[in-house]
Structure formats: structure tokens, C-alpha cells
Amino acid sequence: MPDDLADDALVDRLQRSAFGYFEKYANPENGLVADTSREGSPCSIAVVGFALSCYPIAVENGWMSRQNAAALTLRTLQFFRDSAQSERPDATGFKGFYYHFLDMKTGRRVWQCELSLIDTTLLLAGMLTAACYFDGGGAEAKIRELADRLYRRVDWRWAQEGFETVAQGWKPECGFLHYGWEGYNEATILYILGRGSPTHPLTAKSFGGWTMTYQWENLLGSDVLYSGPLFTHLFSHAWIDFRGIQDAFMRQSGSDYWENTKAAIALHREYGARNPNGYEGYGRDFWGITAGDGPGYRDMRVDGRDRRFFGYMSRGAPYGPDDGTIAPWAMLATLPFARDAALSGTRQLLASYPRVCRDDRFCSGFNLTLPGDDGGGWLSEGWYGLDQGLLVMMLENARSGLNWKLLRDCPYVVSGLKRAGFEGGWLSQ
Amino acid sequence: MRSTNIAPELNKADRAALRHRVRPDDWKNPKPREIYDLVVVGGGPAGIEVAQCARRLGVTVALVERKELGGNSLNAGSIPSNTLIHSARLCAQMRDAEAFAVSTPAELKLDFTALKSRLMRVRARIAEYHSVDRLRHEGVEIFFGDACFSGPDTVAMGPTTLRFRKAVVATGARPRPPTFPGLVEAGYRTSTDIFDIPELPERLAVIGGGPLGCELAQAFRRLGSQVTILQNDPKFLPREERDAAELLSQSMARDGVDIMLNTTVVGAHAEGSAKIVEAQNYDRKLTVSADEILLSIGRIPNVESLKLKAAGIDCDGEGVKVDDFLRTANARIYAAGDVCMSHKFTNVAWASARMVVANAFEAKELRHQELMIPWCTFCDPEIAHVGIQVWDAREKSIPVKTYTVMMQDVDRAITDGQDDGFVKLHVEEGTDRILGATIVATRASELINEVSVVISAGIGMRALAGVLHTYPAQSEAIRLAALAYVRDHAE
Question: Which residue of A has its CA nearest to B398?
């Protein structure tokens, strides 16, 4: 990566390379996209959702023809239309939801994984994005018709199991999974899409039931609705423009989710600067603690200190868990919210540790505290689709706001927001 | 950690002293009076407190205890567990000593018999403050034996009947028995007898991730056992907020406790000398092999043998039913402590006992719901709370903002290497009134008391920010939170 690139050129280049992940790791036959670049990786339905949301970006930037993008999108939707929806353990989905991981070729459930609400939500967000973007006839009309049909068949109410809030998943082997969503996290978009459904919406009290567990906090100098991992402050924002719109909680707190993400970014930078655990590299321009790959579970003594390292997990700041691993893409993904911080951190990272961005594409995890084979810190192998998709979308939102504009015109998103109690800003215009 | 028995003394003197203080072997019940102003059924913390407070008012008091004075706290609760926890902390500190530039022997040795002796010594010493002799000296007439109500104003102990003008049920609670098959046959322990184990178990399975389960899981791990803890919820300590429970998980994992959340125990069986716990994590079946199983899934009230109906007292699975003033359905009979309170803590037992005496004999109308209850889980770091939880405030439409200071940012916590945790003060928005606090810190049990005083005295965040604290001190975190409030509200 040349170090004399202007900011916009740098961003363009990194965004283009991130999108390259989908070109390389999507199955053109059915539109499924591999979770990671590693050999034998199954498809992650969330990554498919990101891919569907990135194809319009690729068209607008001239990386894909509109015709090809529409064709791939249609094949993807057709796969989800035609794939098995049943209680059978090897189906693709059930009740309109989908299993988290699917076989790249057959589309059948793998790893005995869960029917995932949040990952289905991200897939649906991609489908709705496609429906909003492809506004022509022929294949594009079919995209709209299919996306609408697939969204409407999701039985959100079933996933509440009679409770106020939703379960996190379901398995045919044991029923619903309750991992305990307490406090703010990435699920805002889930509740909004769930509330917006014209067929099987989440109940009126669902969003309020979840937000009842929120905590408005003054923490490390920021007023913030806290959630530890950085991605939780970004996922919903990849699709929904939260600028100036508020739900009941944010009205009471005098903020909004857009400002909240800015506050969370400030908190992460401050945590990096304070670096209470003395991890190598951490600083105001070296941050990005989030979900991602890690060095693997091990305890060891490094430079006279006992250290505990983790594998793939959701890391957070300041409460942890934190093992000194950052996601190198995460700083840049905050570009729409904190341009200076995002660019400053990214530039410093690229200048000091260029290997975190092999082929201009960021890896999932980097840990300077744990010496790697070459002494330059541990580095995650290959790439993760979620990281690349989120980065492509966030960089586009910073540049043109394309994804935000698209879903501002999605009636289900608008009704979901309003039913969840959001008001103001563009929503009231 | 290697466990040894290098000092196998049984501390007979302490055992005898304890026995003498909680139930002398040669005890003979006194001849009952015609009628007592007050009969207290149960000689645990609540019962003893009721008896002592009532005697100070000059009323005649009979105290009836089935087994030994002291109840759960002294014999199977806070006292033995905190004694054990302290030794476990020392083990952990010695393991970490190198980080503080202090060398320790290559192999730490635990003298488990000596630890048990110390446990006995501590219990014996504390028992003195509530001993048979002391109570008798204060004029409390003590009766040992099984008792039950025989009418609305009588308690029967075999052939003996105690008549009363007022009575208090303070029989406490005991560990909830297993709700799944096989454990009785396989053998298990609860808080009642875990402190009696002859030697440190090589492998310990703890069922239940509430306060006691977490405390003992971590303590036994630090003493040297391989510990697995199984919890059916997605987090430990369901009464605590997410961030506190998460920090505890991280801390226990760091100690090497094998943590199984979202895991329901479905059965148990024995295989040779091993005890096997059978569990299910959603669709995954698993087993845990252990030498001892500690069951810690809550407590149930001791009411079965009391014949409460004979006295017209209502009761359900949660315990004796009381009104706001701790009165049972029989207006002359009250209840106090674990047998009726949802918070089954010693400090709550004492407070409810004092409330009962005030209401019963001083014509007060104190309501137990108005008690402000600080509590603590004595893990490392400790997790303490007082006042309202944020979710409760939000349910009541009270706007709350939380001021958080990480212990990582407190100088004294840094100097001591005790910087895991935080202080959170929950403040009513638009005011500087503190509604509650959650503290996770090495000595959260001490820090929380400052907040209790502040809340009780009605001291707001502004005034608190102006109160000088010693420096450096971990309690500085509380003032730093108040200072954050002041900065937040600067003109």
C-alpha cells in the first residue's frame, strides 16, 4: 500500500479490495458466500446479507455490471425461496428463518448450528436492500417480488415464544436458545425488521421489553449506552440511518443511536490510550476491540505478566474480555462517525504493521502482545466475510450514504422504526 | 497446589468451646414460665437478634432452637465460607506474588486439616458473641428441642408447652434439595456439610451459579481442586447486572474454573468412587466426573415441622407469608429472617428482627419493603449492590443515569494490583440523588457501605464529590464517580 495515497484514494482502494472478498468467495450458482476464506468454510447467512447489500455498491462504483449484480442477487433469492424450510435437522431454514451456517453447495444446515435470528435479520436486510435498489423490470422486478415474499414469510412472533423479547435461536434438537440478551447490542435492526413485518410482527412490547435492560452511563468521559464490542455499535447502522431519529430511550437520554456510536468510538479510543492492561501497541490510534478471530485459547507468561488469550470471540472495552487483540478493519469501519479518528488510526496501523492488510484487505485479528512466529505479533489467517461486508458498507455510507438512502425508502423499515417508537429527523419528513 | 496434612490436629478445644457456646452437651431446658411475652422459634441470626432486642425492652423471652444456636450464618453460611475464601485468596495472592516482585516456594502447600481447624476456631470465637451463656445472662430463656405450634398462642416441645403473648417464627432456610434424579444415591454436599469434607476434593462439581456456588467454586479452585461449575442461566448471579456477572465469569475463568453456562443438570450417578453429573447444554449432552458434588441451587424455608396451621399462619413455597409489618396471618405472631424474606442474607435477618421487635413491642409501623439492603457476593473481585437496580428504575419510569468509574483508573487499585472491577452509582436524572450502586472490586463488600450511608443520609452526588477521602484509597472510586457527575453538570 503506497503511503502517499490521499485519504479518499486510500479509502477507495481498501473498499474495493474488501468487496473483492465477495467476488472470490461467493458461489455463483446459488449466491451463498463463505464465512471465511479458509478452506472448507461453510456459508454464513449473515455474510450473504452483507453481500446482497454490497452488490448495489459495486454497481454504483463500477465494479460490477448492474445486470450481473441483479442476476447474482436473483439467484441468491431464488435459492432461499427454493431451499427446504422445515423442522428437519438438515433443512436450510424454518418458519422463514435460516440456519446460521449452510453448506456452500447444497445450502443445507451444517455443524448442527442454530436457526439464527440475528443472522437471518442481516440476511433479510440484504434482501430488502436489493429490493430497494433494483427498481427496474425483468430480473429486477423478480428480486423485489422475491425479497418481499421471503421477508413476509418470517414468523417473528413464533420466535418470541410467548415472551416479550425474542429468543436468540432455535434448534430442532432442543428448541429455543436463550443466550440472555441483556443490555444494548447489535439487535436493534432485528427488532425493527421484526416490528415492521406486515404478516407476523413482533408484539408491540417487544422492543420496549428489550430496551428496558438498557443503562445510560457516563463511562471513561463519554455518555453512552454501553455495549462492549465495537461491531454492536455498527451493524444496525450499516443499513439504517439513525441520524436524528430517536426512540423513547434516546429521547429520555437526550441522544440518538448515531451520537451513541460516536460516543462508543470515543470510549474505545480513550480505552486504547489508557491501556489499563498494558497490551502492546494500544493507543489513541490503535484500537478496535470487537468480535473477531483471536490467537486461540492459551495461558502464558509474556514479559513477566500472566496473559490469557482467546480464539474467535466477542471482545469488548472497557469491561472486557480483552486479550490485546484488535480487529484491524474496525477503526476504518467507523469512518462515517469519526472520520479523523478512523483515518488517523488506520494510517498509523498500515504504516507500522502493513501485514495486517495483505492484498489491501484487512485480516480479522491482530495481537502485538503475543509474539507471532516472526516476532511481529499474532495475525489471523485469511479473511472473514462479515468484516469485509461491514467495511464496504460503512465506507460507502461515509461517501454517499447509499445503503442508508435505500432503506429509508423501505416501507418495512419505516414502519418497523415507527412501531418501535422512533420519531424525528428523516422519519418525520 | 499440593494438599497436605502436615498438622493433623483436630482442634479439640475449639470444637468443645463451639459446642459449649451453641449447644452445651449437658444442657437442661429451664422450667417454662406460665406465659412469655415473647417466644422466638429459631436460634439463628434473626431469632437471636429478636430475643436480645426484646430483652432490652424488658419483656420475658423464650428462645427455642432445634439444633444449635447461630443458624446458617455461623454454621454453614457466611462465616465458614468467608474463612475458606480468605485462605483461597491467600493462595491466589501467593501464586501471583511474582508479579509483585516477591518470590514464593516453587510448590505451595495447603494444609487442609489446619484450614479446617482454623474454620472451627473462627466459628468458636464468633459464637461467643451470641452464646448460650451470653443470652442466658441477658435473661433469654433457652429451650433446645423440636418445637411446633400447638395453638394460636402456644408452642409445644414434646410434653412441654410454652404459652406466649407474642411469637416470632425465625426458623431460617436450608439448601434446596435436588430437583433431578440420581444425586441422592450418588451422594452430594450442600453448604450445610461442604465444610465437613475430610480432605480437599481433587475434582469438585458445583451445581448452581448463584452467590454461594460462585464463591465456593472459585475458592476451591484456588485451594487446588479442579472445579467445574454448571449454571442453567446464561450468566452467573441472576440478580446482578450484565457487566458485573461478565467480570465474574472472566475472573473465574482466569482462576481455571471450568464454566458451563446455559447448562441444565438432568441427573447424576456413581461410577466406582466417582460421582458423575449428567447435564444438557441445549442439544449437547455432557457429563462431569467429580469426587464431590456441591449442590447450590437456592434455599427453601424451614417450615415443615412447625405445624403453622395450628397457629393460623399462612405459608407457601417461598416461606411464611407476612404483611408489610412482618406480621403473619395470626396477628400476634411475626416472622423474621430467611423463613420469610426474599433476600436471605444475615444482615437482612438482623434488620427484619429489629423491625419485628419495634413493631411488636414499641407500636412502630416499620415496613420491611423500605429496608435498603446492601448485599455482596464474596468472589474475587467481590460484587456488591445496594438500592435500586437500573432495570427496576426503568420499569418504574424513573430516569436513571449511571456514573461509572473503572477500578483500572483508581490509583490505589493500581498500586495494589486490584484493578478488576468498577463502581457504578445510579443517579436519578434531573437530580443528584443516588438511587443505587453496583460495585465490583476486591473489597466491594466494604466500599458498598459508604454508598449505603450516603443514600441513607440523603447525601447527593454534589455533596459526595466534596467529601475528602483518604488518598490513595480504593474508595476514591466513589468520589471520582461523584466528580464525574459534577463535571457533567457544570454550567
Answer: A252
Confidence (pLDDT) at B307: 97
What confidence category does residue A178 fall into, taking pLDDT thresholds of 50, 70 and 90?
confident
pLDDT above 90 covers a percentage of chain B that reads 93
The complex's ipTM works out to 0.94
Give residue A147's identity as a one-letter amino acid code. A
Q: How far apart are CA B83 and CA B76, in angstroms?
A: 11
Q: Say how far apart CA B301 and CA A293 lie, in whole Å.
A: 48
pLDDT > 80? residue A384 = yes
Residue B419 to residue A276, Cβ atoms within 8 A: yes
Is A2 domain-assigned?
A: no
Q: B419 in contact with A at a CB cutoff of 8 Å?
A: yes
User: In this complex, which of A180, A182, A216 lies closest to B402 when CB atoms are compared?
Assistant: A216
A182 vs B242, B282, B422: nearest CB: B242
Which residues span the domain enclosing A107? 7-428
If pLDDT is split at 50, 70 and 90, which confidence band does B7 have? very low
Q: Which domains does chain B have, with CATH numbers?
A: 2-174+300-370 (3.50.50.60), 183-297 (3.50.50.60), 381-488 (3.30.390.30)
- Per-residue pLDDT averaged across B154-175, rounded? 97
Residue from A111, A115, A178, A215 to probe the interface with B (highest B Cβ count within 10 Å): A215
| Contact by Cβ (8 Å): A240, A406 | no
Nearest to B421 by CA among B485, B461, B474, B469: B474
Task: Please indicate, yes or no, if residue A416 is contained in any of the structural domains.
Answer: yes
Provide the whole-model pTM: 0.95
Convert the pLDDT of each residue in B389-446 to its tens digit. 999 999 999 999 999 999 999 999 999 999 999 999 999 999 999 999 999 999 999 9
Compute chain A's Rg from CA coordinates: 21
Alpha carbon distance A186, A116 (integer Å): 13
Compute, in degrees rounded to 10, the torsion defined by CA atoms A325, A329, A331, A332: 170
**Which residues of A sit within 8 Å Cβ distance of B?**
112, 171, 173-174, 177-180, 182-183, 212-221, 223, 226, 252-253, 274, 276-277, 304-306, 308, 318-321
Say which CATH number the domain at A376 has: 1.50.10.140
User: Which of B280, B283, B488 is closest, CB to CB, to A112?
Assistant: B283
Distance from CA of B261 to the nearest CA of A (A): 9
